[in-house]
Amino acid sequence: MQNVGPVAIVGAGIAGLTTALCLAHQGFETEIFEQSDSLKEVGAGLQLSPNASRILIELGLLPALEAVWSEPDSVALLDGRSLRSLASVPAGSYARNRWAAPYGVLHRASLQKILLDAAAAEPRCRVHLGFRIESDPEAAIDRAMARRPSVIVGADGIWSRTRTSIAGAGPVQFSGNIAWRLMVPRAEVTAPLSDDRVTAFLGSKAHLVAYPIKEVGGFNLVAIVEGKAGDNVWIGKDSEERRRELAAAFDDWHPKLRALLTSATAATYWPLCTVGDGAWHDKTRTILIGDAAHAMTPFAAQGAAMAIEDARELARCLAESQDAPSAFARYDHARRSRIDRVRKRAAFNRFAYHARGPVRLGRDLVLALKGPESLAADLDWLYGYDA
């Protein structure tokens, strides 16, 4: 697209800011509109797999990332009741060699700050905070900009207002799982956690993922359990009643893990929702990316990675197409199969992680027969992908 107006981006999260930077590298001017008065990322830890980190490296962000993240040596699977090792996938220097990009863990707020600082330093990017869209997103954006945008990108998350302007967009659906995010100071850790690995503990109806967050001197915990959505469909604060529900989900787990969950602080929980299949764009100038288009469950740890891939692919399609509609068609074709495959991997992981009875025994046998190299090879399509 040549001699076009600026691109408007709704949402200054990971998806929106990465999109702005990718578009700027293609020569587009972008204006990012964020409803919050200040950027405070909800959540705690974040895993950045090689398929995402290589895109951030292309944007020149590796030094900033290396200053705040950790690169675990492995991703380990353990049994949540016995603490028995089930499998391990090498990461660290192995990831850099095999997938040509690192596997890092860091605080979400740190990544958002890195992206925001990069956008602030990029002359082609402008960020507007405190911009709230009440109705008709396109009209609101048009009024806010001096020049009519050629493209509007909805990067405003699962509860996207931009999505309301897309006929046939996918519906928000509750996945049947509740996620808890908690933090544990390093000094209080008694369970088998390690600074050099991501650890996933598996059990029937629940699993627990733990990894170090260098910036806070402790471990990020993500506990995912089966449950009901309840009245609050976004995010809930800690409470005695909810803590009892969390404890009940892990009541037959190893005592060290139960103690870890009991002592953890900064707890938040929320029902895990997804966005079902549907239209991603209006075939004219508005398009959805990231969670706004295809929010998925976190069982493959690919939510942020898919948004980062989306950003790079959309920028490429816009740069190489004659107009927005043809760019959208190319983007749709490029991303549909990829998103579908990652969704299926997340669904498979959910089945495997929460397995019980004979299925659990079969899972453990299969994992025991696969070595680290074989498990890594199974992820080549995911981590080796170049958007």
CATH topology of the domain at 7-72 and 104-171 and 275-354: FAD/NAD(P)-binding domain
The number of strands is 15
CATH superfamily of the domain at 7-72 and 104-171 and 275-354: FAD/NAD(P)-binding domain
Q: Tell me the series of helices and strands, N- to C-terminal.
A: EHEEHHEEHEHEHEEEEEEHHEEHHHHHH
Global outline: globular
Look at the structure and give the CATH class of the domain at 7-72 and 104-171 and 275-354. Answer: Alpha Beta
CATH-level-2 architecture of the domain at 7-72 and 104-171 and 275-354: 3-Layer(bba) Sandwich
How much strand content do the residues show? 15-25%
Per DSSP, the total helix count is: 14
Biggest sheet layout: 8 strands, mixed
- How many angstroms does the end-to-end distance come to? 20 Å
- What structural category do the secondary elements indicate? alpha/beta
Using the CA coordinates, give the radius of gyration.
Answer: 21 Å
Structure, briefly:
This protein is of the alpha/beta class. The chain is 39% helix and 23% strand.
What can you see in these coordinates?
There is one protein chain. The chain has a domain at 7-72 and 104-171 and 275-354: FAD/NAD(P)-binding domain (3-Layer(bba) Sandwich), CATH 3.50.50.60. The longest helix is centred in the C-terminal third of the chain and has 30 residues, at 324-353. It has 14 helices and 15 strands. Helices cover 39% and strands 23% of the residues. The chain has helices at residues 14-25, 50-58, 62-66, 92-99, 108-121, 137-144, 240-249, 255-263, 291-294, 303-320, 324-353, 357-369, 372-377, 380-383; strands at 7-10, 30-33, 45-48, 74-79, 85-90, 104-107, 125-128, 151-154, 172-185, 197-203, 206-213, 218-226, 236-237, 265-275, 286-288. The chain is of the alpha/beta class. The strands form 3 sheets. It has an 8-stranded mixed β-sheet with strand order 5-4-10-11-12-9-14-13.
